[in-house]
């Protein structure tokens, strides 16, 4: 039986004149695993929401053409009926979890579908076992790591025993260890021949578990290939914003396949900048009221450097940033010695620290308190009584925001919103910028844009400290890596020095770009 | 005559101070609570945490019924019964996980609710109503005299000590219910509330909306906290006097509401999709993985509810049960 059969599909959102998705013909057989790639906004989410019936049943849109999912038309089938055929796992684990305990979350769908009590328990235990969370069943969902949360959400979907699974960027918001846990499950699903549609940016990691790759761009399927054809199409994929490891181009050039010897592959690192003017030095200690040390470390930054702060979740990275900028949770106690450009800011108030250090949180949307872009950027200047129209214009130009200066920042695209946030903190006078996981949940195209922006700002003397798990971004755009473990910075060096260390994966939860493993093993066997 | 009578007798100081009282009076309860417990404190007082006390073992239906009974009793009896009930409920917070902290938070929240309640009643209470409580107007103590144009806003010409006392009495109707409702939220998981509401045949969509709200409230305070801090980092309050800091804090909190709500709405959409793709509303009812039973504490609570109802009846019979205006201060 066919899992998916689409003919002449056109999906047009209300108020739009042009369709956001157009598919002439697409068939996915039962048991097939398909990877969907493409830039943000290309139509990937529209595609999967059309399969599971969210469009048009929950999100209004006109859906023309023929669509059949296991013989059912999702437009005419209630979502709860479709959910028995197709399970959906979404991107953000925190937003999709509703219940307080893991066991309640896993049982949620079964209770909705009126399964008898005994059957619910049996199915909960079975699906928890499959995703490896049996030991977590009594835990509170809000205390789980990102990976554990995502596995809990997946167990809840699997408990309903769907014939197919849709995984919408399941690893975008979780750490590398959580990502590895999810990918391990893909292997199991593939072994059981469950139909899979995966939207994922980490192509090289997911490749062993799929049969086929579909590239969507501008609402159209522009490439539909078997995974073995990826090497031939690597240029094309890369041009359309897909994250392609360097050795794919090497394989293409040498007309090799995935099983070929890669000993000749050389990974070239970009030049790294090394600053020699100390701009920030800090000694930070943060502990809980019951005396548990969360951070106890020293940090120094040189002018113009782009420094990545890496390490496992819970290592103390975000706490370190918050302690320095002065926005720690008031339940925590801290001791801080902070010097920026020879000025002692240890006891400085928030607005004074903000003159020197800008902080971009992961949820930077909550920064936008003004209703136009130009007002938002001018906010800091006006508050500090140094508003200057020419300077505002300069910021609008520097961040390519001239055309949207009268628009509400909250209504802009993700990339534009991030640029407004960045411009706003720099307009406040900051010369050092702390960023908390800025690449989380973004495709390679947008991560590359961010990397280039950061490098451009470095040219004018801005220093960056970026908390991230994104080793490819670090390798390509950062000058230095600091690794935190149990509240201390324990390793420091150029990205290549850190990524080449043997214990980096198991000891520190950092997964280097696969180029480093290829260089080390001379083949791709480590991925299988 | 109060010692500061010269201030309201002079038109200039009368106008200035009246407007300060007007604005600060509205903002004071909010400022007080923000200053004392902070936005993160709000988060703690609205979020369920696992615990071992008897409140966590009780059936959610019992807790809901208790809240309803308390609301009824506080509404139909004299003010001090409401005050005693409030005290009784907030003492129960000591039995919760991290009880002392929660007790302090709820005490402060109750205190500020009393101030807020008082302030929303006192300036508007006509003398005719006050006379039913305090029969001799000659004994009234004038605290402040408003400028004549304040009458257009519904203010009485004078603010008296008796009006303030009356305002405090009225506020005890709110505090008993508020502390009982928070007690339910703090000791019951969203899943159990969902099961309970389903049993009570409350439509699932309505229950889900309420629970998304319950689940979201702590997050709102956390995000507001981040947004407020970000504004101060960007220079809000730069170079201003410390005395204005609370005003800036309040301003920052108000303007942070829009981005916070927009951010949460984006997350709410994900939650709605996640729920619907897991069979939510497939049938009018739901089955239960675990059956919520009644334990000895529930039976004790039923006994307490019964006694409260008897108390309300007796209070009314013996003249302590009149609704607005109160008698028997």
List descriptors.
heterodimer; A: 528 residues; alpha/beta; Rossmann fold; 2 domains; 6-stranded mixed beta sheet; 21 helices; 23% strand; globular; B: 329 residues; mainly alpha; two-stranded antiparallel ribbon; ATP-binding (chain A); ATP hydrolysis activity (chain A); ATP binding (chain A)
- The number of domains of chain A is 2
Question: Most extensive interface: pair and counts?
Answer: A-B, 79 and 57 residues
Q: Return the structural class of chain B.
A: mainly alpha
Taking pLDDT < 50 over at least 5 consecutive residues as the criterion, the unreliable ranges of chain A are none
Shape of chain B: globular
Distance between the termini of chain A: 29 Å
> Gyration radius of chain B, to the nearest Å?
23 Å
> What about the largest sheet of chain B?
2 strands, antiparallel
Q: Helix share of residues of chain A?
A: 25-40%
Which stretches of chain B are low in confidence, meaning pLDDT under 50 for 5 or more residues running?
none
Mean pLDDT of chain A: 89
CATH architecture label name of the largest domain in chain A:
3-Layer(aba) Sandwich
Encode the helix/strand succession of chain B as letters.
Answer: HHHHHHHEEHHHHHH
Q: How many helical elements of chain A?
A: 21
How are strands sequenced across the largest beta sheet of chain A?
Answer: 5-6-7-3-8-9
Compute the average pLDDT of chain B. Answer: 86
Itemize the secondary structure elements and their pairings.
The complex is a heterodimer of chains A (528) and B (329).
Chain A: E1 2-13, E2 21-29, E3 33-37, H1 44-51, H2 54-57, E4 61-69, H3 79-85, E5 86-89, H4 93-96, H5 102-112, H6 117-131, H7 146-158, E6 164-168, H8 176-191, E7 195-199, H9 203-206, E8 212-217, E9 220-226, H10 234-239, H11 246-253, E10 278-287, E11 293-302, E12 306-310, H12 317-325, E13 333-340, E14 343-344, H13 350-356, E15 357-360, H14 373-383, H15 389-398, H16 414-427, E16 432-436, H17 444-459, E17 463-467, H18 471-477, E18 480-485, E19 488-493, H19 495-499, H20 504-508, H21 514-521
Parallel strand pairs in A: 3-7, 3-8, 5-6, 6-7, 12-17, 12-18, 15-16, 16-17
Antiparallel strand pairs in A: 1-2, 1-4, 8-9, 10-11, 10-13, 13-14, 18-19
Chain B: H1 5-9, H2 11-44, H3 54-57, H4 60-76, H5 79-92, H6 99-121, H7 127-133, E1 142-145, E2 158-160, H8 161-187, H9 190-199, H10 204-233, H11 245-255, H12 257-276, H13 296-317
Antiparallel strand pairs in B: 1-2
Helix pairs in contact in B: 2-6, 2-10, 2-11, 4-5, 4-8, 4-13, 5-6, 5-8, 6-8, 9-10, 10-12
